[in-house]
Each structure stands twice: as C-alpha cells, then as structure tokens.
Amino acid sequence: MADERRIAVLVEDEASVAGAIAVALRRGLSPGPGEDAPERDAGPIALPAADDDAPPIPLRVERADVAIALDPESLELARRASVPKVVALWPHLAPWDAEIEADLVLVAHSALVREAVRRGVPSKRVVVVGPVAPDGWRAPEDRAAARADAGLEGDRPVVVVRASALAEMDLAPALVQLSLVSHDARWLFDVGADAELARSLRRHVPGYGLDALMFADGPEAPASYARADLVLGRFDGPEASRAFAVGAGLVGVPPSRDRLRLAHAIETAGVARLADAAPTLAVTLDAALAPSALEAARQASEALDAANGVARVVAEVRALMRGERGGAALAAGLPAGLERLSEADRSARGRRPDPAEPGPDPEPTAPPARDDLDAKVDAELAALREKLGL
Question: Which of 51, 182, 213, 269 is deepest in the core (most CB within 10 A)?
C-alpha cells in the first residue's frame, strides 16, 4: 500500500540541475509497479518556491505532510507553510550559506557533515546519502561507442569543461593553461544556458590550438558528459554531480578561500583532484590525464553511485516518516542540548571537548609559495608560442 501522506518536493529554479533532481525525486517517490496509487492529491508534488514578493504560499505546500527542500529559499517556504516534517537536501558538494532548520539534512559526502553542524544542525539529524543524479544521467555501457557516435573516434582522452568555471578564473589565462597540457586531449565546453559565454568561446578558443567543441543545456548535455574521462570545473558546483553520475573523474579549478577547508577534505578523500592556483592548472590536468590516474578517478566516481542517489534519498525520507530519523525540529536559534551562556567559574582547563561541536576553524592555508612564479609563467607562454609556431 503506497504511503498516503503528501510529499512536496520544492526547488526554486526548476530549470537548474537541482530542478532536474527534483523531477527525479518525484519519480522515485511515486508508487512502483504493483503498488496502489495514493489518494487524490496525496502523491509527491514538485512546486517552485514562492518569491519574497509573492508571500502567499501555494495551497498544495500548505497541505503537505513532508517537504523536501533543495535550496535555502525552498526550506524557508516549507517552514512558513508549517509543513510538519522538513528535509533539506544538499544536492552538490557545497553547503548552504544559511542557518538550517530541518528535521533531517541529507548531504552528498561525509565532509559536509561538519558544515551542517556549523549551521546549527545536530549531528544526529545529518545523513550522508551520496551524490544524487537526475534522470537520464548515467555512465554509458560502452564509452568508446558513445564517442564514436559523436565523431570522437580514437583513444584520446575527453575532458568536459564547465566554461563558467574558467570564466570565473579569467578565460584567456585559463585557455593558455589548457593549451599547455601535454596530453593530446579533446575538450568539450559546457556553456549551460549562457549565450554570451558561447559567443566568447567562439571568439577566443580557436587561437589556442585546442581540439575543442562546445554544447549547451538540453539533450546534448547528458550525452556529452557520458563521453568524458574527466570533468573540469568547480568541485562544489553542479558539474561535480554530473561527473559522478557518468563515472568521470573530477578536476577542480582553484577553490575560493572560504572553501579551502572543505576542498582539502574532498581531495583527501580521493573524490576530486584540485588545482592549488590558476598558473598550475595545466600541471594538475597533466597529472589527472595519466592513464593510471584516469582509471583511479573512474573507479572513485563509480563508487559514489550517483545513479542510485534518488533511491537513497527516498529511503531516508521514508525512514523519517516512520519516526526512525532525526527528532523534533528546533526553531532557528534555539540551543541543541546545553549551551553555556557565560564563562565557567572555574578554569575550563582540561575540559573534554564535545565531539559534536565543530570547534574553531583552522586558518586557511595559502597555496605553497613558488620561488619564481613570474619566470614560470614566462616559460609557459614561450612554450605556447613555440607550440603555435609564433
């Protein structure tokens, strides 16, 4: 018998990668073959979050028994609607920059548990479900055949590049780095829905001697990622989930300063290989494109099993509905357990730390110093000029 409680799957931008995951969750929460259909208006629903300028809450959200929110705005909507049970799903390797008030927080990697606790979530309410792939995103049965279908025959490695990540670094120097990679790779640029970025690539890429193609969001996107050995982009962006979905390795551009600690944890876990600075991106890519590194990255990506992420999320939501997860949600700002408001009368020296407390953050470490960075860049530019016959 299908569960008759109403489940709202909320996402602010239905056209985003998170929106595609919301669609997959709706499918996963629907009754399977042989199960009874839920009562009228009792099944899973997917609705966009309301804008602040449109305060009325959609009726079906008010009537939901459980809400799964894929972004902070949707979480706020669910709380304003007084939905009895609220689940926050972090679909990427990125924490939300907001205080989290939820009965359950589902994260893509264990490195994010600490980030959730830092945002006010008791550790017992944080569950690692791994990455979650949208429908249609999975590894091909025969990657070589998938490439041949697109005219990419041969055994040269294929790298999908999230173009917006390079643009954030500064496009021209980033293209110089790609041109300095010693491996004879093919580059497939993902421009998403950014037409101006596509025009910029048409102007600039031909001058760097790259074997490059580009594609946009739509039917070509899943097929293009499925042809890749590596995906280059932000480790905490949606391209990471796409890489894991198709069994490709992930190479991250230099992380922002506020993500250094998380980036270190992700790299140490073997989930991604990250460049430490823009002038060394070519070195990082060369190391990642070595045959042994490609095989290790493929195995690490496949082990994350993003294709079955929806099933894991559904299982945790069902467990919450049965009372097996989390507990009564605390209003934002309320203490979890005993919270000291003043200094202890006695010295706290020797006090055993609470393992659930995140504790102070270590100071982010700067990239390792280089003796002569200017000379290194000059040498790279000289190598590029020689390669292009200038």
Answer: 213
User: How much is the pLDDT for 337?
Assistant: 58
pLDDT of res. 17: 85
Is residue 248 within 8 A of residue 231, CB to CB? The reply is yes
Q: What is 178-210 written as a DSSP string?
A: HHT-SS--EEEEE-TT-HHHHHHHHHHGGGGT-
CA 177 – CA 208 distance, rounded (Å): 10
More confident site: 3 or 92: 92
- State how far the Cα of 100 lies from the Cα of 251, in Å rounded to an integer: 29
Whole-number pLDDT of residue 332 = 47
Q: In the numeric block, which tokens belong to residue 209?
A: 């001697």
**Residue carrying the six token digits 């099993």:** 305
For 19-84, what is the HEC assignment? HHHHHHHHHHHCCCCCCCCCCCCCCEEEEECCCCCCCCCCHHHHCCCEEEECCHHHHHHHHHCCCC
Strands 66-69 and 126-128: unpaired
Residue found by looking up tokens 């962006």 in the block:
237
b/e burial code for range 21-52 (CB count within 10 A of at least 16 → b)? bbbbbbebbeeeeeeeebeeebbbbbbbbbee
Taking residues 363-371, report their average pLDDT: 50
Q: Cα(243)–Cα(220) distance, rounded to whole angstroms?
A: 15
* pLDDT tens per residue across span 164-179: 999 998 999 999 999 9
Top pLDDT among 287 and 336 is at 287
Return the amino acid letter for 82: S
Region of residue 98 (left: phi > 0; alpha: psi -120 to 50; beta: else): beta
Token pair 């959200």: residue: 61
The CA distance from 22 to 91, in Å, is 10
pLDDT, average across residues 310-333: 77
Structure tokens at 364: 């982010």
Interatomic CA distance for residues 372 and 367, integer angstroms = 14
| Nearest 10 degrees: Cα torsion 161, 165, 168, 170 | -20
Q: What is the mean pLDDT of residues 126-138?
A: 90
> pLDDT-derived band of residue 51, with 50, 70 and 90 as boundaries?
very low
Distance, in Å, from the CA atom of 237 to the CA atom of 135, rounded to the nearest integer, reads 18
385 residue type, one letter? R
Positive or negative, the CA dihedral 374, 379, 380, 384 is positive
